[in-house]
Each structure stands twice: as structure tokens, then as C-alpha cells.
Amino acid sequence: MNGMAKLEGSQGSVTGIVLIAVAGIAGGVLAPTLPGIDDVMSAPSQVWAGQATCVPTTPDAEGPFYKPNAPERTSIGRGLVISGIVRTVGSCAPIPGARIEWWQANPRGEYDDTHRASQAADREGKYRFETSVPGVYPGRPLHLHVKVSAPRHRPLITQLYPKPGQTEIAFDFILRPQ
């Protein structure tokens, strides 16, 4: 089955031809416009030969409001839970202790220090973050900014786009080695 892969996500699995370039783009910037794509793009794909491979998470804009040294915390609000595993591209191996930084607009659509956090992934590369739904920032869809870094890997800056009414996001961050 040359070129065939099975993508598994929280909503089941999709089998078909995988175009890595399209998968990389859809996993980030286009994910908010493709129904169900975030469920399969954040999960590792299982190749029919049984060897796991991961597509790197697509970078997105840092924006003008990033500030380093956010407080260490796993919650800055209630209503939206984001969880997953930080992994390395290719083997999909978890990256223990990866640093994750979060920043977003408050419910009034303003960026403030209350809506910034940093955390470390656990020994299995897992993380869980709870926040309020980001406020509407003029000209942008609802979004959270994320920066993920780990030794011997390129830093990743990306954004997550919750849908209105969404209370959970399962998302694995896939980093490229340096």
C-alpha cells in the first residue's frame, strides 16, 4: 500500500493517501476552516508497516504581545482544557520536560499578564492547561498563542483556534530536531 496511511484522532480514524505538505499546512493555519481536521492532524499517523511517524506542527505568528518569563502555572481560567503530548518529529517519541508558554486575550479582548502562563511537560511529554475561552481580538478568530521549546529541538511558535462553544482541545505539539 505505497503512500497509504491511517490517521488516528479522537474522532476515529481516516485512511487514505497522505500528502505531507498539505497535512503540515492543514494542521496549523487552515485547521479552523476544515471540519474535523484538528482531530486527525494533531495525532501521530500510523503507517501501515506499523512504524509511527509524526508531521511537525505548523508554525504560526508570534504576534506583538509575547513576553518571556510568564508565571509557572497550569491554569489561568475555566471553561477550556487543552491537553496532549509534546513529541519529536519522525519517531513521535515524547519529549519530557518540554517548556510550554501560553498567552491570549482576556474576555475583553485585551492581552494582560493574568492570561499568560508557562509549564513543563511531564516525564511522558504530557501536558494539561486550563484557561477561559480567549476574548475576541479585533480582526482575528478566537486564538491562543503557544511557544514550545525543548533541548536539541527548534522552538515552535504556533496558535490554537478554539471553535465557539468548544470546551476541550486535544493537541500534540510536534517539534523538529535542531
How would you sum up this structure, described in words?
This protein is mainly beta and 178 residues long. It has a single domain, classed as Protocatechuate 3,4-Dioxygenase, subunit A (Sandwich), CATH 2.60.130. 7% of the residues lie in helices and 37% in strands. The protein is built from two helices and twelve strands. It has helices spanning 20-26, 37-41, and strands at residues 4-9, 12-17, 45-47, 52-53, 80-88, 99-105, 111-120, 126-131, 144-149, 156-160, 168-170, 173-175. The strands form three sheets. A four-stranded antiparallel sheet has the order 2-1-3-4. Strands 5, 8, 11 and 12 form a four-stranded mixed sheet that branches. A four-stranded antiparallel sheet has the order 7-6-9-10, with no helix packed on it. β1 (4-9) and β2 (12-17) form a beta hairpin. The longest helix is centred in the N-terminal third of the chain and has 7 residues, at 20-26. The chain starts with a strand and ends with a strand. 32% of the residues are buried.
